Amino acid sequence: MASVLVLNGPNLGRLGIREPDVYGSATFDDLRQMVTDWAGALGLEAEVRQSDDETDLVRWLHEAVDAGSDVVINPAAFTHYSYALRDAAAMVTKGGLRLIEVHISNPYAREEFRHHSVIGGVATGTIAGFGIDSYRLALVALCERN
Ligand code: DQA
C-alpha cells in the first residue's frame, strides 16, 4: 500500500476552536480521522501529523524523502515565509515524489500577506478553499494521477 505523509503546520492543532468562521468546526482529531478514512478508501496509508515547530516539519519532509513517501502538506502560516520549508519541500519533488500543498481556507481571498506561497513554486500542485475536503481532493489527486 502506498504511504503518504499528511503534515500540518502551526495552529492547525487548534482546529475547532480557532476562527471557526474561517476554518470550520471540525477538530484536528476529526481531521485526522477523516483523512485516515479517505486514504484507506483510496488504498493509501496516511500518517497524519501536526506541529507548531518549523524544525519538526523540515525533519518530516526529510523523512518522506528517505522513505519514498508522497506528501500532503498544509504549511499554515509557514506557507507565506518559510524558506527552510520550501527548500525541504523542493527535496521531495526534485527527488521524484509528489507534494501537494493544501489549505482549508482560500488564502487568495484573505489578507494580502496570505496571497503569496513560498511553497507553491516547488509543489506538485495546490488545493485551497474547500475546507477539510481540500485534503480529500489532494489524496484523490495522488491516487488518480499516479
Ligand atoms: C491555512 C491558511 C494560512 O494562511 C494560515 O496561516 C493557516 C491555515 C489554511 O489552511 O487555510 O494557518 O494554511
What report would you give on this structure?
With 146 residues, the protein is an alpha/beta fold. It has a single domain (2-144), classed as 3-Layer(aba) Sandwich (Rossmann fold), CATH 3.40.50.9100. The protein is 38% helix and 19% strand. A 5-stranded parallel β-sheet has the order 2-1-3-4-5, with helices on both faces. Helix 4 links the parallel strand 3 and strand 4 (99-103). Helix 2 packs parallel to helix 5 and helix 3 runs parallel beside helix 4. The longest helix is centred in the N-terminal third of the chain and has 14 residues, at 28-41. The protein is globular and about 35 Å long. The two termini are 13 Å apart. The relative contact order is 0.20. The model has no long low-confidence stretch (mean pLDDT 97). The site of 1,3,4-trihydroxy-5-OXO-cyclohexanecarboxylic acid has 10 residues, from loops. Residues 11, 74, 76-77, 79, 103-105, 107, 114 line the site of 1,3,4-trihydroxy-5-OXO-cyclohexanecarboxylic acid.
Query: In CATH terms, what is the architecture?
Result: 3-Layer(aba) Sandwich
Tell me the overall shape: globular
Seen as an oligomer or otherwise, the chain set is: single chain
CATH class call: Alpha Beta
Helix content: 25-40%
Distance N to C terminus: 13 Å
Which fold name fills CATH's third level, the topology? Rossmann fold
Largest sheet: 5 strands, parallel
Count of the separate structural domains = 1
Radius of gyration over all CA atoms, rounded = 14 Å
Strand arrangement across the biggest beta sheet: 2-1-3-4-5
Summarize the helix and strand pattern as letters: EHHEHEHEEH
The hetero compounds bound to this protein are: 1,3,4-trihydroxy-5-OXO-cyclohexanecarboxylic acid
Provide mean pLDDT, rounded: 97
Structural class: alpha/beta
Q: Write the CATH homologous superfamily.
A: Dehydroquinase, class II
